[in-house]
Write a structure and sequence with these properties.
By secondary structure, this protein is of the alpha+beta class. The protein has one domain (2-62). Helices cover 24% and strands 35% of the residues. It is built from two helices and two strands; from the N terminus they run H-E-E-H. The protein has helices at 5-14, 58-62; strands at residues 28-38, 43-53. A two-stranded antiparallel ribbon has the order 1-2. The longest helix is centred in the first third of the chain and has 10 residues, at 5-14. The chain is rod-shaped, with a radius of gyration of 17 Å. The two termini are 22 Å apart. Zinc ion (ZN) is lined by residues 20, 22-23, 25, 54-56.
Length: 63
């Protein structure tokens, strides 16, 4: 994977929004839903957020 860095760099210039500049892999937007209990209203709140996942951080996010 590391060998193709120059190729990855070209890809990044062409399509920087979907490829990671670190690993050159395509980035996937993953929706994470976390719940937390709000003491004020005594109810569960659900937070949705999109996280961009690539080879660099997929282990820590998906595990
Ligand atoms: Zn990456």
């Amino acid at each position: 994977m590391g060998k193709s860095k120059s190729f990855a760099d070209k890809m990044n210039k062409k399509d920087s929004s979907t490829h990671c500049s670190e690993c050159g892999e395509s980035i996937t937007a993953v929706k994470l839903i976390s719940s937390e209990r709000s003491k004020k209203i005594n109810a569960w709140r659900f937070n949705q957020r999109f996280v961009r996942v690539c080879k660099c951080n997929e282990n820590e996010i998906i595990s």
